Structures are given as structure tokens and as C-alpha cells.
Amino acid sequence: MSESASTPRKRLPTVNDIARACGVSRATVSLVLRNSPLVGAETRARVEQELKRQGYVYNRAAANLRRRTSSSIALVINDLSNPFFAEFAMGVDEALVDEGFVTLLGSTGESPERQELLLGSLLEHSPAGMILSPAENSDGERLRRLLGNEPPVLVFNRELSASGWDFLALDNRHGARLATEHLLALGHRAIAFFGGHADSSSCQQRRQGYADALDAAGIGIDPRRMIECTPTRVEAAQQTGALFERDPSITAAVCYNDNVALGLKLGLMARGVRPGVDFALTGFDDIPEAAQTSPALTTLAVEPRARGRQAAELLLQRVRDREAPVRRVVAPVQLVVRGSSGAPRG
Amino acid sequence: MSESASTPRKRLPTVNDIARACGVSRATVSLVLRNSPLVGAETRARVEQELKRQGYVYNRAAANLRRRTSSSIALVINDLSNPFFAEFAMGVDEALVDEGFVTLLGSTGESPERQELLLGSLLEHSPAGMILSPAENSDGERLRRLLGNEPPVLVFNRELSASGWDFLALDNRHGARLATEHLLALGHRAIAFFGGHADSSSCQQRRQGYADALDAAGIGIDPRRMIECTPTRVEAAQQTGALFERDPSITAAVCYNDNVALGLKLGLMARGVRPGVDFALTGFDDIPEAAQTSPALTTLAVEPRARGRQAAELLLQRVRDREAPVRRVVAPVQLVVRGSSGAPRG
DNA sequence: CTGAAAGCGCTTACAG
DNA sequence: CTGAAAGCGCTTACAG
């Protein structure tokens, strides 16, 4: 039975075709498909054989239309090339597949405009829910207006003003506090907070945790020790100079995240300052590279894949119970001490 | 107008609701939605206002059902935590969004069993096409039977036997040849091929390119210089010993990929062998870390994001023209020379 | 246990 | 330019 190359797109068999071939109604076929106990064993067997024979493929879109349900979840993230989000996406997808949902992927590249277009397009596919890690500078109220009450949304990672949606975040504040306390315990007193944009919520929270620890140690906050930079490695390396210009007494830095820390590390080495020996630094995220760089990076483990699974589970709970109170879940983070943090020199 | 928290899931407005409110038929509304020139300007304006007023959301699933079309593409990859695939997925998604498609994501984690389940589930959502980067040890004929002729598939990266599907791959053979020739030109003669599984098609091709270059240089292939290992950093670091045990004269290695090369680098440093000075090595992929590690890694740039866009475009061409001949596209790779490759010692 | 009928939200000829 | 009718592939009461 050779397939002709010019065969026009074959129509897939439908419940109708199966029903006709078996001499039953399509209701019966539908019941067999969903394993209803209403169908007799003999009929079921006949139908199942015919399904296999014709290579029947269930049309979930048609079923969803009729049942007014949906079996997809939209996942909107900024940037898959960030390992943190890539791992997160993996976790989301794993958990969703286990629950019989399929993931509709969208990436915004941190552009609020692109995000709006994307959301509009995703909505037309009527997802049962959405996991949204908002692009920087997203307008919460605008998004709320765009999305309305359908579908339910779980916001991840970045706080959105006035959204009224469930929210899952990392414990940024506590994490940064742990890192700062660790450096204090090693004897550091002149500690910078390095990297990130001061107007992003996660940066604010991490700076807050840093301030908490300094306060508790009776050390004042010195604005010269707060250095902003785009959280990329290259930018961070370039800002290394600014760090020492503004306060030459600095012996340690709590970095906004691992990428920034790794960039700072490069910047330090380029100036002949040995990370982990002459200067202590900590990151945030525990990306795979943190353990493998030399000296290995002291950082905060956030387990993005587990966060992904958690996000999927929270959202599905919401999908199943729309009336439950809005949730705000803060996931714990863990300090992982490695070689990059050392005692102060001198 | 406060929203009651106990409002049962609001039904979204449909073409029917709009038509009724405007006093036109739903056919007219449908025409407005798709910008048909058949509708009068005044009617169109009235309908459009009403669409906005009621917050109408197009139901693409219903439209697709009726038109027998699809606006989704399934993307099946192994592992998003591999930056190569994450970048590839970004590229695919970017290109698909631009063409009005949405991405159905699925990840197999290199498990053929999980892959089959996943494909079954994705098929039920009737994607217009599928981009499939097969799990290792996939059975091509089995997949072909499972997927049939619908939807069209573009296989990426890993050759599948007897599939009859379009195929996009990297020029593994040529790339490995370039790397090997580069090491030869630097004076190396005892060059290993390090890492990868000998039964994977990409490893075979890279080994072939390595052999091509050695052949051309009149150097025989020595099986002691071919070391297998799972392409992870940890594994590669652990196999470093095996490399020198099997042939202590080795001065350079063409590595299966960047992860392997970075692992080998760690293994070398742990033994006091300085990469780029005492020993030369090359990678494959040019992951971001390759440029940032020290010494930076000589490798082959494959531009995964561009490959993703290319894959999406090839697939969409197939979706639009089912009768075109099957294609086999080999994407070029570029040698990027950095510090990790140096002249032989002594 | 099985079948006939209606309907999910759209689009597509076909009349007018 | 607009409307009435049929239908995409399913499911869901409702009869029998």
C-alpha cells in the first residue's frame, strides 16, 4: 500500500467513521473513548479495535469546545536563554503533562509591548490558566484589564501592582539577608550590594534583606556601596571599577544574582583582585555554573525546576477552585557556601 | 461595579452576543472579525465598537474546527536546561509567533517512553506541524507509525532512520574537521576525540570529521584516543584520567561539545595540567560560557537561536506545501578560535 | 446498555 | 452588502 506523494491531506477518521464501521451510534463511540462503564464489554472491544484499525486520533479541541473546558495552560516568560527561566519552564511543563495539560509557550524578551501582543494571541487559544512571569516594567492594571477574569493567572517572580492574582515568589529578602549575614560572620564590614535595577521588585527585596542584616549588625547603609547595573555578566564586569571608585575600602559584595557575581568575578580578576581571597562575593540563583566555576560561587539555591512544578500546581488548584482566597506564596531559598566568600584581607 | 468573588465563571461573549446587540447576523460579525471588505463601513464600525464594549475574545479553536485548520505547532525537545535547546526553543517560538502560530511545548528528558506519551498527547491537540528533536535511542519507524502523515514533522539535530521527514542538522562532520585541522595546524599530532556516545548520530558525525582531518594529515586513527562519556560536565571531568592512561602522549583533544570540554578543563586543572598552555582543547556549540571561561574555549558556533528560526521556517514551508520534495538541510558551523587551543608543549 | 437530537463557537457557501 | 442554514468533531441529557 504505497502512499502517493500527491495524496491531498488525508482527513483523519472521526467518531462518525468509527461508529458507522461498527454499526453503533457515535454517542457509544464517545463513551468508549472516555472509558464509560455504560458500554458493554463486547461493544467496547469492537469499537476499540476499530479505533486502532482506522488510526483514530482524539480531537481534543472539539471536545473542549463542546464541554466548555480547556486542556492547555499558557506559560509566559521573559527569556528561555536565562537558565533560571529555562529550568522553571521545564518544571512547569513536567507538572502540567502529568496532569494532562499541554503548555502553550510564549516569550516576551522583557518587552511589555511584545508581551501584550503575545497575551492577546494566547488568549484566543482559551487556555485554562496562565503562568505569567511579567516583563520588566509591566503595567499591572493594564494587564489586568487585558486579561480580565479569564483565565486565572499565577504571577511568578515579579510583583505586579493591583493584579488580584495569585503570586509565587522567591524569598528574596531573606536570601539576601542570609548572604549578608554570612559575610558579616566572616568578619567583613564594608560590604557592597552589587547589580540589578533598583526599580525592579526583586532587586528592592534583595537590597532590603541586605539592609536588614547590616542594621542588625549595627552597620549603617552607605549609598556609595549600592551599585546598579543590568544583570548581565558583561555589564557587571564593566561596573567593577565603579565599585572601588565609590568606596575603596570595600572587601565584599552581595551580588544581585549569579550572573552579576560571575561578571564581577571577571572584573576583579582583570584588576588582579583574587575572588575568594582578596575579595568575597555571593550570588543568587545557584545556576549550574556557580558550582563549577573556580573559586565556586557562594550563592542562594532557589531550585527553579521545583518552583516550576510548584507554580503549575498552584495554578491548577486555582483552575479547579476559582473561589479560593488569593494566595501569595514565598518559596524558601537556601544559602550554599562555597569558595568565593572568604575572610577579609589584611 | 464590584466583581463578586463568588461569580461563577463568566461566559465570554460570542459572535452571537455581538450580532444580537448590533442587530446583525453572526455571519456579518464573523466577516468583520476577519476584516472582510464585504461589510459596509458603518456596520463595521458598529460591530467593532460592540466587540470592544463586550470584551470579545476570538475563539480560535472553534474557528479552527470549522475551517479544518490549526494555528499551533508542537515543539518537542529533550531538555530545556541545556542552553543549546533553550536557545533553539526561543528561536522557534519567535519565528512562530511572527507567523501567527502558537507553540505547544513538550520535553522528553531523553526518554523514548516519555516521548511517545508526549507525542500522543500533543497529537490530540491537532498541531499544524511538529518540530521534533528526538530523544536518544528513538526508534524512527515506531515514531513514523505513531505520527503517520499528520501532522508534517521537521526532525532536528538527530538523524532518524526511515522517517521520510524533513531534517535540519548541524554540519557536525565539517565542524569537527575544522577543529581538528586547527589543532593540527598548531602542531599537535596526538589528538584525542573526547566525549559523547558512539551510538549517537551527532557523535558519529563529529568523529568522522575528526577522522577526515587526521586522514588528510596522514595520521592514523588510534582507538585508544577515542574516549566515550555521557556529555555532562561531571562525567567528562571524571573521564580525564582515562584519557592519559590510554595514551600518555596526548597533547590535545577535540571534545564532543562545550559541556564536555568544560568538564575536561576542570579535570585537567585538577591534575595540574594547564588548559591552553600544557594541553589544547576545543568544544562544540559555543554556549555563552565558552567565551567567558578562562581560558576561553575554542569551539564551533552553531547559533542555536538562528537554527530555531530556520526550523520554524522550514516546517511552515512544509505545512504550506505538502507535496514539495523532502528536504535535508545542513546548517553551517563556524570555528571560533580562543585561548583554550595552544601549541603542543615541549 | 444504545440511539436520536441538540449544541459548543465559529465559518462558508448560497440566496437575496 | 446582509441573513438563514448547514456543518467542523465532539458530548450531553433524554428516551427507550
Automatic annotation (TrEMBL), chains A, B:
<dbReference type="InterPro" id="IPR001761">
    <property type="entry name" value="Peripla_BP/Lac1_sug-bd_dom"/>
</dbReference>
<dbReference type="Pfam" id="PF00532">
    <property type="entry name" value="Peripla_BP_1"/>
</dbReference>
<feature type="domain" description="HTH lacI-type">
    <location>
        <begin position="13"/>
        <end position="67"/>
    </location>
</feature>
<dbReference type="InterPro" id="IPR000843">
    <property type="entry name" value="HTH_LacI"/>
</dbReference>
<dbReference type="InterPro" id="IPR010982">
    <property type="entry name" value="Lambda_DNA-bd_dom_sf"/>
</dbReference>
<keyword id="KW-0804">Transcription</keyword>
<dbReference type="Pfam" id="PF00356">
    <property type="entry name" value="LacI"/>
</dbReference>
<protein>
    <submittedName>
        <fullName>LacI family transcriptional regulator</fullName>
    </submittedName>
</protein>
<keyword id="KW-0678">Repressor</keyword>
<keyword id="KW-0805">Transcription regulation</keyword>
<dbReference type="InterPro" id="IPR028082">
    <property type="entry name" value="Peripla_BP_I"/>
</dbReference>
<keyword id="KW-0238">DNA-binding</keyword>
